Amino acid sequence: MRKKTSPPEAVGSFAIQKKSMKIRYLMLCLMASLVAVLGYAQSCLVPAPQHYLPANGYFNIERTMTIGYEADVLRDAADYLNQYLNIETCERADADIRLHLDATLDSEAYRLDIACDGITIAGGDYGGVFNGIVTLMQMLPSEVYSDDLELPARVECCRVEDAPRFEHRGFMLDVCRTWMDKGAVMAYIDLLAYHKINHLRLHLTDDEAWRIEIKSHPELAEVGGFRGGDSPIWPRYGKWNERWGGYYTQEDIREMVDYARVRNIVIVPEIDLPGHSLCMATMHPEILCNYEPNTSAAFGYDTRSAFCPSNEENYTLLEDIIGEICELFPSEYIHIGGDEVDMSQWRRCPDCQSFMQRHNMASTEALQAYFMTRLGDMVARYDKQAAVWNEAIDGGRLDDGTLVYGWESVKECRRAAAEGYATVVMPGQYFYFDMKQTPREPGHDWAAIFDCRKVYEFSLPSAGFTAEEQGSVVGFEGSFFSEVYASHNPENSDYIHYQTFPRMVSLSEICWTNSDERDWEAFYRRMVAHYDRLDAMGVAYRLMPPVVKYEDGVLAVTTDDHSPIYYRREPMNVEMLYREPIATATPAEYSFVARRGRAQSPEAAVASHFKTITPSFKFSSSMADRERFSFEKAEGYGRLARTTRAADVGDWVMYTFDTPVKCRRMKVATGNFQLPRYLFENGYVEVSYDGVQFHRVGELECGAFVIEYPARPIKAVRITCTSQGNGAEWVSVQPPTIWPLL
Q1: Which of 44, 128, 332, 677 could be joined to 529 by an S-S link, Cβ 3.0–4.6 Å?
Q2: Is residue 27 part of a domain?
Q3: In this structure, is residue 29 part of a structural domain?
Q4: Residue 610 lies in a domain
Q5: Taking Cα atoms as reference points, which of 309, 375, 376 lies closest to residue 347?
Q6: Nearest CA among 412, 404, 413 for reference residue 386
């Protein structure tokens, strides 16, 4: 047992901490006084209004009052507000809360007047009135979002004149890789509406699933909406061998579209073509290019994923699909994809090569442009415009009305804008909210690792957009691709909330405000004030990590939002409330997390707590490895290894250490670092202390297992597969992650 000591300096450190806490308290009091002077709205609203003029007095919303609308078009807006206030609505101009249209205001602009004798919300259109309602709700007690608002409720008198900077304030939900049912989508629509996001793009089709009913081809959803079990669709991103998934009926779509409309949100459907079509090809192999693939490595699965552009019958099938999509969605735009097409399939296809020769096409990019133009023409026949990913413009000019979503980089966004396309700016480095927020948090990392501050600090001038290019930008869009979500209990919304909030708050701010000047500290104060609302909304948002300092034998932990802090001390797994600095000679044993309602921060600790070691080891397996991703290269801890085929029952991978490893924790994992894919879907883990005898220690979870506090130094670890196939052409194997004894 280690002997714990408390250094003599600890008493002095406690005194310093108490003094620091007193100073912080005085600062909070000063901030509260500032809020009283400036007005609540100006200090706490997100996004910040363009113009705010405080006035003397308050208005009390009483149970006996009414919400009046002067035009029938505003009836839905009145009913929406009534859901939260629970007072009578009527078509009258002399109500206590008055909604009306003002032709002098621009689209989505509003004027909110709160006087001692009533509230008036004027809008240039329905969207403007709705935006005014959103602002009014933020000025009410946060309980308005949780159906706990007690009337009378007091709001301070003021005038707000406001309008959005960008017409497109968007967010994309990938409901394809990980299924989200109608109720989950509608709940998310509410969260978008609370933040004045006015476009929701639904990523409805991809290699892994087809999520929308097409009546002329019911098999697309009925088969393509499910994977695992007896489904012919590859099981990746599902629930392993369990049949799981779903799709939206056309009635579901109509309900969601109308639900969104009331909340000033347009749903933009995305049918991702011509690539990302593996799911559809499973049911319609005739859409694929004319060559025989090698399916032996993937247990008979065909890995071809792209439509053959030279096959005229494909366009007949797509006419059916596009026609039904256009009739279902009132959106001006239909997103038809155009990203990440595996054009090697077209280069191997004799029909595509012959087609390119006949039409003098110099590149497969030109072939893609031909395909996208054909789809754009289909969309145009329904008086709509095509929207595409930025790669779709690589092969030639598309219709001038095409909307381009720039995702690959700022450079590609600028290129689309410079070529005169209406451009939605959403480079993954800033706006893909499925990315990790710190290296140790869940999520992807291929684009960047960033939190809400990086989102907030993005601006067009700082990103290099010229004045002319800025003129083509219609707005920004965040996105959440859901591959990793499959491993985080998707029936529970905590993970998607954590990934998207408060980054969504930052997105809302930069979409709305006119200024490109960024003041993070001022914005962060407003965002922290917004936490009460997020709590009431039931959002499991991410808090900023606590700051951990170790000086003179004392661990001191603070948060800049004053959320409660909890700690654990290894090897015990008991969470305790942090009340005061901790005197300790072993700071690495402690880790800290801030919590607030459903919200929490990432884990924080001194650097040595997270230290890992890289003892020498050798990979071995029942499966051969690939030359480019060999076991030998992965043994250097810098990369993954790949096998030459998918896994079968009884296949195994083993780590054998040169010298038995002493550690407190060891993680072994199949699959990619960031994706629940290319893994052993089911299996178990064995440990050997002598390299001869093995002892079973547990079952794989999402392809991985963590060995906690092994009783003896580990000589070898073996992972054995208990399922056939893994929805892929190979198995990825990760080097072990090993945490040393503290």
Answers
A1: 44
A2: no
A3: no
A4: no
A5: 309
A6: 404
